[in-house]
Every structure is written in structure tokens, then in C-alpha cells.
């Protein structure tokens, strides 16, 4: 069960659990990098992309559920080593590993079962976005105390992570496919929090992105 003692460095007033979506295939990156998994690609300091993304989220949440596709044992092992609780999804009956909606639904169902009553929101981040500052995660989580759904915005561009109050979790748990939570965002609305952090819009899509931390690869909401 996730509770506020899981991460003693997380402020007690921020009662949130992190969700890290790391089940994607990264086919565009792999096609340009001889099949390499972008989540395992090293950043400038040598740390794998997914480990850096997980570290910042772990610093801001009571605990982190990381969703990994079936068979991706290296990513699962790294995230477990980092302190995440790993949830594996797929393959499904059609032979796929599902889309972002399936990943988010699996994580939401898991935290609905395991989060203690003190946990009031979840903070959804992507495993291929390693440049978000830890203080940005904290600010988004703090804002979720007052708003059902909160997302950061850098220079008018909405990014990640996205926080969802506990009342929204059942809607996330019902998602499927590859369109993520767009239907949930449209139904409930999103409060945008202006931040001075370009990392909220910067993801790793191709090998060239590893050397730049700008918003050239803006991601859609989860």
C-alpha cells in the first residue's frame, strides 16, 4: 500500500502517488538507432533516460507505479531497482502491448487497489521525458490539492506531468487504446500551471533529442 511514509523527503502536505508510463515501443528511435530502446539510452551523464525520469518523480511522490510492457525485463529491473513498483501490461489477445490508454488504466486500477486513504491524487509522467525538474513535479502535485486535473504549461504549451485527483481515477481506469486520457481531460477540464521549465514539453523521440532539452518534441497530454 502506498502511504506518505514511503518517501520521507516528500512534503507531507502533498499526498500523491506517481505513475510512470514506460510501456511504449519507441519505434521511431529504434529505427534510427539500430533497435536500441530509447528508455535505456544514456543521457549526457550516462544515466538511462527512464532512470532519470523515474528519479525526479520519486522525489515528489509518496511512491511510484511504473507501467512496463511485457518482456521488457531490462527496463522493469532498472525501475524496480530505482524504487518503483512495476506493473507489467500485455501482450493482449491481438498480439499488441496496448497503448497509452491501456497503460494508464492499468496503473489507475493498481493505485485504486493499493493507495492508502491519505493519498489524494496521482501524478502521471512519461518514461521518455527525463528533463522535468523535481520542483515542477512538486508544484503540479501541490496544485492538485485545489483542482481536479492539473498540467504544467511552458510558454503556452501544455506538457507533463499531469495530476489527477482521486475522484478522477475511476475514469482513468476505464481507458483503453492509444489516445490516453484526452477524453477525461475534455470531460473534466484542465487547470494549466505556468512553469519556467522547458522539460515539461521535451521528450526523447529520436537519438538527436538526447543532446537537446528543448520543446522540439512536444508531447500530447496522457
UniProtKB/TrEMBL annotation:
Matching CDD domains: GT_2_like_f
Keyword Acyltransferase: no
Pfam family, one: NTP_transf_3
SUPFAM superfamilies, alphabetized: Nucleotide-diphospho-sugar transferases
Residue span, MobA-like NTP transferase domain: 18-188
Enzyme class name: transferase
Keyword annotations of the record: Magnesium, Membrane, Nucleotidyltransferase, Transferase, Transmembrane, Transmembrane helix
Transmembrane segments: 49-68
Key word Secreted present: no
Enzyme Commission number, as recorded: 2.7.7.23
Protein name: Bifunctional protein GlmU
Name of the gene this protein is made from: glmU_1
Amino acid at each position: 500500500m502506498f502511504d506518505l511514509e514511503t518517501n520521507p523527503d516528500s512534503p507531507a502536505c502533498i499526498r500523491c502517488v506517481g505513475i510512470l508510463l514506460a510501456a511504449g515501443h519507441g519505434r521511431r528511435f529504434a529505427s534510427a538507432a539500430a533497435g536500441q530502446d530509447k528508455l535505456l539510452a544514456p543521457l549526457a551523464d550516462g544515466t538511462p533516460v527512464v532512470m532519470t525520469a523515474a528519479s525526479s518523480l520519486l522525489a515528489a511522490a509518496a511512491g511510484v507505479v511504473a507501467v512496463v510492457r511485457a518482456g521488457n525485463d531490462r527496463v522493469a529491473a532498472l525501475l524496480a531497482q530505482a524504487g518503483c513498483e512495476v506493473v507489467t501490461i500485455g501482450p493482449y489477445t491481438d498480439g499488441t502491448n496496448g497503448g497509452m490508454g491501456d497503460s494508464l488504466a492499468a496503473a489507475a486500477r493498481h493505485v485504486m487497489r493499493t493507495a492508502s486513504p491519505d493519498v489524494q491524487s496521482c501524478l502521471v509522467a512519461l518514461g521518455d521525458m527525463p528533463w522535468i525538474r523535481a520542483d515542477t513535479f512538486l508544484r503540479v502535485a501541490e496544485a492538485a490539492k485545489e483542482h481536479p486535473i492539473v498540467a504544467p504549461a511552458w510558454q503556452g504549451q501544455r506538457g507533463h506531468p499531469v495530476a489527477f485527483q482521486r475522484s478522477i481515477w475511476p475514469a482513468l481506469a476505464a481507458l483503453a487504446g492509444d489516445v490516453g486520457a484526452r477524453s477525461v481531460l475534455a470531460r473534466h477540464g484542465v487547470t494549466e500551471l505556468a512553469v519556467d521549465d522547458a522539460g515539461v514539453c521535451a521528450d526523447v523521440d529520436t537519438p538527436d533529442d538526447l543532446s537537446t532539452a528543448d520543446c522540439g518534441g512536444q508531447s500530447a497530454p496522457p
